[in-house]
Amino acid sequence: MSLINTKLEKDNIYIIELNNPKKRNPLSLELIKSLQNEFDDIKKNKQIKVVIIQSTGPSFSAGHDLTEVRKSAKSKIKLLNLFKTCSKMMLSIRYLPQPVIACVDGIAAAAGCQLVASCDLAFASKNSYFQTPGVNIGLFCSTPMVAISRKISSKDMMYMLLSGEKISALEAEKIKLINKVFLKKALKKEVINIASKITKKSNQSIKIGKLAFYNQLDMSIEKAYEYTSQVMTKNMGFNDAKEGIEAFIEKRSPNWKN
Amino acid sequence: MSLINTKLEKDNIYIIELNNPKKRNPLSLELIKSLQNEFDDIKKNKQIKVVIIQSTGPSFSAGHDLTEVRKSAKSKIKLLNLFKTCSKMMLSIRYLPQPVIACVDGIAAAAGCQLVASCDLAFASKNSYFQTPGVNIGLFCSTPMVAISRKISSKDMMYMLLSGEKISALEAEKIKLINKVFLKKALKKEVINIASKITKKSNQSIKIGKLAFYNQLDMSIEKAYEYTSQVMTKNMGFNDAKEGIEAFIEKRSPNWKN
Amino acid sequence: MSLINTKLEKDNIYIIELNNPKKRNPLSLELIKSLQNEFDDIKKNKQIKVVIIQSTGPSFSAGHDLTEVRKSAKSKIKLLNLFKTCSKMMLSIRYLPQPVIACVDGIAAAAGCQLVASCDLAFASKNSYFQTPGVNIGLFCSTPMVAISRKISSKDMMYMLLSGEKISALEAEKIKLINKVFLKKALKKEVINIASKITKKSNQSIKIGKLAFYNQLDMSIEKAYEYTSQVMTKNMGFNDAKEGIEAFIEKRSPNWKN
Q1: By the 8 A CB rule, do B15 and B6 touch?
Q2: Model-level pTM?
Q3: B118 interfaces chain C, CB cutoff of 8 Å
Q4: For A251, which residue in chain B has the nearest alpha carbon?
Q5: Whether the Cβ atoms of residue B113 and residue B134 lie closer than 8 Å to each other
Q6: Of A30, A179, B233, C207, which has the fewest CB atoms closer than 10 Å, so is most exposed?
Q7: Residues C138 and C66 in one domain
Q8: Could you tell me if C209 and C159 lie in one domain?
């Protein structure tokens, strides 16, 4: 049995479903590599417009596979490799040209919470919860906090890290870890709707824009403006921009060719 | 007819009113240059204490002038010049010694939304809305996101960028794009009141402090402390600081000389 | 009489109580140095697990001692030394291996507000308020804003700095300057409870994790992942991690040896 299911939905929405419910979808090296392979393929796939990461079963992901971590602990090289491979996979989401949406139903803890933070958008069912419980097992959530602390305020992050407590989906929405909470029974449909709306936009411009977004975030504001002025100029050379502006001026719907 | 009206109000509050209501105050090269000229003059003007940017008519600003952008599209140099000139103008607000307040009544979209984000403070009427709709016309809001992403969380920013949807003034307040929402009929008076209160403060210290604020934001915390320790020391050499502290200790109102 | 009281509470919680109520606990050079000495000692003390900073009397801290600032104003070297000594003390909280919690009951203004922002967690009574009132006395809160602007959004920070107005504890919770508001009569007990819970976690992992948290914040995301992957690997070599994971797999409570 595979650790993930994938399918291409209508509107070229690609769904990755974590599928190891009994173990609560741990981010084992095998799962990390499967996700990395997916992202490497998606990157080259011009058909896919939006990616959704969801799960079967009652959990989203409980984080690293602790049995595996314990086994790897004998070799520093193995351990370091595990964390680096995981970090690289998380960064692949950031640098994927397509938007990636986390659709969370159940627990998202440690590296599972990092996965949510790493996605461009995140939605969750009301019964979901989020947690960085490393302090409970003597292994501080140091790699997860890299992604999470870039989305939420330091005081909220510190509370999660030091208390190790669960926070509810509603609280996660309030602190901006996720975009919005839906009822459990509505979640998947709502997320598909949002994804579907995005597929109707100019995906050519989304691809250049998403990359530019994360690139400019780490720059000084002056450099960020210099860089994005170049990006806007390049973007204007695209067919979509010409068609989109044409359509706007002519008060009609654009007819994307990409 | 000029694209902007300006007037010096009581308490040395300077009002810039965008005045091209039929076209929804597009940030054409001409308007950008007019604003740049204003900011260049205000910078040297020691009388002006606070600047308010507002608009006539039902819109604040709908962003770049798409007819102009389409025309410029034939020349990459022209286009790049447009975006760079606009970025420079936005940065001028940041580096203006006087506080700049956006007073938004109506739509603030794309570069219009960037203008709001670039101001030090922003207030809006309840019926206003905010939007980065570039994905709808194939031209991702890459330069606007530079200013906006430095004020709001990444998840909220991404939703605005990818969906292209309008967000309400109340939502904009919640995500910290603006400071506060007022009823439409109260907006201008409330903003004047806030501006007026600021003019009563030590404007000498505001000038050195505002500049220091943005400068320190991009530094490591250690460098930021080293830099602002110098700024505080310099500030203490000002007449206002001497008078202000004197007045505080003597339990009387300060009598600013600047 | 000493400017601070200290005591080691149950669960190895160390309490520093600002104790100059008549003067509203001003951060005079003497108090700053006392706090610095405390932090230098705590850093080397392996018994102390969590630090709480609170106050006697009706104020938390009103900021620098203005009488002293005025006296120092004659010598630029003295002034610069005051601000640098204060900044260093604030940074010591950040780099202290133990979590530091601000327990605020009353006013926290200027450098007093900076002290709250510098702590890892902060809780306040409902009647507390927060303020950066420098503009009222001609001395912009330039060093306080270094800490505060790294916790709250720029628009909120600018409003505090330019208006000099008090914000309520509930507002401070909303803008993420503090974690949570409690009723005045419940505050100290609630904060002790939170601190106590943290002492039950793996303090060995908290020590490595807290340091890593602030270090990674200023890095690019790529460097942050490289760095924290090393930190996680090192953390896995600790007794606590071995015991914690062991306990988790065996479904029992961990038995920390540190």
Answers
A1: yes
A2: 0.97
A3: no
A4: B137
A5: no
A6: A30
A7: yes
A8: no
